[in-house]
Here is the input.
Amino acid sequence: MANKAPMTQKSATPVSTQKTSAPKTAYRWRWPALAALLLGEAMNLLDSTIVQVAAPEIHADLGGSVSDIQWFTTAYTLPFAMFLITGGRLGDIAGRRRIFTIGVTTFMLASVACALAPSAGSLIAFRIAQGAAAAVIIPQTIGLIKAMFTAEETSKALGSIGPVMGLAAVCGPVLGGVLTHADLFGSSWRACFLVNVPLSLGVLAMTPKLLEDRAPKRPTLDLIGTALAMTGVALIVYPLIGANVARMSSSSWSSIGVGLAILIGFALHQRGVSARGRSPLVEPSLFTRRGFPGALVTSTLFFSVTTGLMMVVVLQLQLGLGTDVLTAGLSLAPWSFGLAVASWIAGGHLTKRYGHRVMTAGLALLLVGLVAAVAAYRSAGPTEYPTALLVALGVIGLGIGVFTPAFFTIALRPVKPHEIGSAAGLLNAVQQLGATLGVAVLGSVFLNGAVGSGGPLAALHAVQTTFWVAVGLILATILSSRLMVERRMRR
Here is the structure.
C-alpha cells in the first residue's frame, strides 16, 4: 500500500510503490506538480517541431551536406523512439521522480550544447543526447500522476495532457520562426535551443514537490533487446536519409535488409525473454490479436506523413521561394490551429459517439487537404507564394486532429491491464519512429528533386511529387486502420 502524502513541509518525501490506485489522502502539492510534468512533456514535443522551421537557417549558418537538414530532426526522434520503453523501465526501478529529474537536467544541458554547436556534426550529436533525455522524461508522467492524485481526480489530470500537447504542437512551428527571425542578441536559430533553459529550470524548481513512485515489483532491464531494436532501426533509417530510393546502392539495400533481419531477431529475443519469466521490452501477448499490430503499422504510416510533410512545406518555402523563416513558421499556423481545434472536438465528443468511424473521417479529411495542397502548388507560379496553400494546410490540420484521439482510443481499447504499460510505450515509440521515417523518406523525395540547377521550378515540382507520395501513404493508412477494427466494433 502506498504511503500517505506529506501534509506538512517538514515531512520526508514519501515513496509510492502502488500499482494502480492513488493515495487515499490527496497530495497537497499535486496540482503544481502536475504543471511541472505537463511543462516537461510540452517542452519535449516543442523541441521536435521548433527545429523543423529553423533547419534551413541552421544549415545555411553551419554548412555541411543538405541531408543534414533531415538529420537535425531525425537525430532527435530516433533515440527518442528507441529509448522510450527503456526510459519507462528505469523509472520503475530507480524511482520516477529521480529519473524525471535526471532526464530534465540532461535535456537542459544538451540544449545548451546544441545552442553552442560549432558545426552541423556536433549539433547532430547533441540532438541525439536531447532525444535520449526526452525518452527518459516522457514515460514517467502517467505513473507520477497516478501516484499523486486520488482515483476521482486521476482522469481529470490525465485529460489535461491532450490539450497541453495540442498547444505545444500549435506553438512549435510558429515559435521556431519567431525566435529565429527575431535574432535576439545575435542568437538567430540558437535561440530555439536556449528557450529550453528557462523552461527546464522552471520544471526543476518544482520537481521536489513530485511524489516519488516506483514499481512494487522491480522489473529487469532488457539491454540486449534495446541494443537489437536500436541497431535494426538505425540500419534501416540511415541509408534513407538523403537517398534517391530509385537509385540506392546495393550497400544501402543490404543495410536495410540486415536491419530487418535484426528486428526479426529482436522479436524472437522478446519471446524468449518472456518465456524465461523476465521483463521484455515489448509484451508478446500484444501480437496475438491483429488489432494492435494494425495500430502499429497505422501509427508508423500516419506520423511519417504528418511529420515529413511539415518539414517539406518549410523547405519549399525557404529553399524554393526564398521566404524568411518567420513567413515559413507562420505558414504552418493554419495546420497547427486546425489540429488543436479538431482534436478537442473529436476527443471530447465525436469519438465517444461514432467510435472507429472517426478515424476514417479524419483520414478522408486529410486526403482532401493533401490533394488541395497539390492544387494550390499547381496554381501558383514557381516564384509566387501559394496563398491557397494556407487553406489546404488548415484542412490537413483538421484531418490530423480528428484522426488522432480516435486512433489512440481504438488502439488501446482491447489491451489488457497488464499490457497497458508496454502498449502505450510501444505506440509512443512507433509514433517517433514514424516521424523519423517520414523526415527521411519524404524529405529525400523533395530534396532529390529540388536541389540542383532547377531553381524554384524544380522545388515546385518536387513538393507536388512529395505530396502525391503522401497521398499513397495515407491510402495505405486507411487500409491498415481497418485491421484495428474488430468485427464486433463494426457492428
In short: Residues 30-62 form the longest helix (33 residues). The two ends are 42 Å apart (CA to CA). The first strand starts at residue 15 and ends at 16.
